[in-house]
């Protein structure tokens, strides 16, 4: 059994940010446990055609690790290079334990530490445990009748098989969300025919992408210029919360912009009808794309709406609800992730053997989206209600680090061994979150989205400005915690 002061589960941006902040705090006795045979998280795993970030790259980066981006919305390959740069620049490579798939974790109250059981790498122990697996790490594939009978090729966008040549093939994409919106334009021209199965349409706005020239890239290498650009983008995007929460006229204005964009790019009235949402913009994730609508309008692309959706799957393709049989060579599952009820995918046992699964039976909840009563010294990066629909998730992650590092530093300075948020503090925080959520478009916009848990609570999003979350996590509030 290997013992460390801190264990970090996951090696994506959340895990990297935690590791670097530990190093800055003078703590180097830690390991990152990565289930795959490579490190880096989302942008090393998701390699599907067209994969790119939908937040401007200068903002979707760690504040302490600037990069000379080549375009405003970086593609997967550049984000992969950036991830590797961060790992190498901060000396994290030797801190990562690969092929360490966590099977379960248990709190030992007598020793005041966590035991982590992994497949392949045995057991680890640590005083502190930081879960940084991320909310978009557990792919979901719907269990359609006959799915296992299909004799062609099939895979989820999260596990794109690059050994398979999709060119000149009959392809179906199941789903129409953010990943599908990137895959469709990337492959539409190369396939024989593309069938897109849409459960509900998404609102789409143009993607204001641009390539940075050599001089602009040089400017991005200067920290003052980089910082200025980050803050300019940050405050521009922060105003979106006004529409999502505070101003119905602002929502209406953005929605009208989206409708004009749809009409301009989709001249076919029947296709436009299928692509027009019946809920308020922002209720589901807004797609930024200037190429999706033209791709859906191609002669070799067919959009199937809900009424023409999947009834069953057989050996050779899909049977639709209106009786068609569609012969296929490839089925691509672009059906998202278990991002709410499955925030942590492995079993967690806290004090007195209490299971996190039972605590979260109704819906996932956590103080600052980070800590839980009954689970001392456990911190969740991008936990319940830390998602952000209008700006960079990395801003939230860095904010969480202020609180996490302050907790660890406080225990070390006082010679104590455990810290646990008080139940009443968590309850007060959670009630505030869901009270504020009632005012948002995510709750009242007339849709059911992956932002919501099975209970109907919006779990994925934080109901306010990101700077408000930053203020809440700026420092530890001792009165909200029990230290021992």
UniProtKB/TrEMBL annotation:
InterPro entries: FAD-bind_Monooxygenase_sf (IPR051209), FAD/NAD-bd_sf (IPR036188). Pfam families: Pyr_redox_3. This is NAD(P)/FAD-dependent oxidoreductase. It comes from Pseudomonas vancouverensis.
């Amino acid at each position: 059994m290997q013992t460390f002061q801190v264990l970090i589960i996951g090696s994506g941006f959340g895990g990297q940010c935690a590791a670097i902040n530990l190093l800055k705090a003078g703590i180097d006795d830690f390991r990152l446990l990565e289930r795959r045979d490579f490190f880096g998280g989302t942008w090393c795993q998701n390699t599907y055609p067209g994969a790119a970030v939908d937040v401007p790259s200068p903002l979707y980066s760690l504040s302490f690790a600037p990069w000379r981006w080549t375009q405003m919305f970086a593609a997967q390959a550049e984000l992969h290079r950036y991830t590797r740069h961060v790992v190498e620049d901060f000396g994290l490579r030797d801190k990562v334990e690969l092929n360490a798939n966590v099977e379960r974790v248990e709190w030992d109250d007598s020793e005041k530490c966590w035991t982590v059981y992994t497949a392949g790498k045995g057991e680890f122990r640590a005083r502190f445990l930081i879960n940084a697996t991320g909310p978009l790490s557990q792919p979901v594939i719907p269990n359609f009748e006959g799915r296992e009978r299909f004799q062609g090729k099939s895979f989820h966008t999260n596990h794109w098989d690059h050994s398979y040549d999709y060119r000149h093939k009959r392809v179906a994409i199941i789903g129409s969300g953010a990943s599908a919106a990137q895959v469709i334009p990337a492959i539409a021209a190369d396939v024989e025919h593309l069938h897109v199965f849409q459960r509900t349409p998404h609102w789409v706005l143009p993607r204001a992408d641009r390539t940075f020239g050599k001089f602009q890239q040089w400017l991005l290498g200067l920290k003052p210029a980089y910082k200025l650009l980050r803050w300019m983008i940050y405050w521009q995007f922060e105003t979106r919360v006004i529409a999502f929460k505070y101003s119905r006229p602002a929502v209406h204005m953005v929605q009208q912009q989206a409708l004009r964009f749809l009409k301009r790019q989709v001249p076919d009235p029947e296709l436009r009808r299928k692509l027009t949402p019946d809920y308020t913009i922002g209720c589901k994730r807004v797609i930024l794309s200037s190429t999706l609508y033209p791709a859906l309008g191609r002669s070799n692309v067919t959009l199937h709406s809900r009424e023409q959706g999947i009834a069953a799957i057989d050996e050779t393709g899909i049977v639709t609800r209106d009786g068609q049989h569609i012969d296929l060579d490839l089925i691509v599952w672009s059906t998202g992730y278990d991002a709410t009820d499955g925030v942590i995918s492995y079993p967690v046992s806290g004090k007195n053997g209490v299971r996190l699964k039972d605590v979260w039976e109704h819906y996932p909840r956590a103080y600052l989206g980070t800590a839980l009563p009954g689970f001392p010294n456990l911190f969740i990066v991008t936990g319940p209600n830390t998602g952000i629909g209008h700006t960079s998730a990395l801003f939230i992650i860095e904010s969480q680090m202020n609180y996490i590092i302050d907790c660890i530093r406080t225990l070390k300075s006082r010679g104590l061994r455990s810290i646990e948020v008080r139940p009443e503090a968590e309850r007060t925080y959670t009630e505030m979150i869901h009270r504020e959520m009632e005012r948002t478009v995510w709750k009242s916009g007339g849709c059911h989205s992956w932002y919501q848990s099975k209970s109907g609570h919006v779990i994925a999003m934080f109901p306010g400005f990101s700077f408000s979350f930053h203020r809440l996590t700026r420092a530890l509030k001792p009165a909200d915690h029990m230290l021992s």
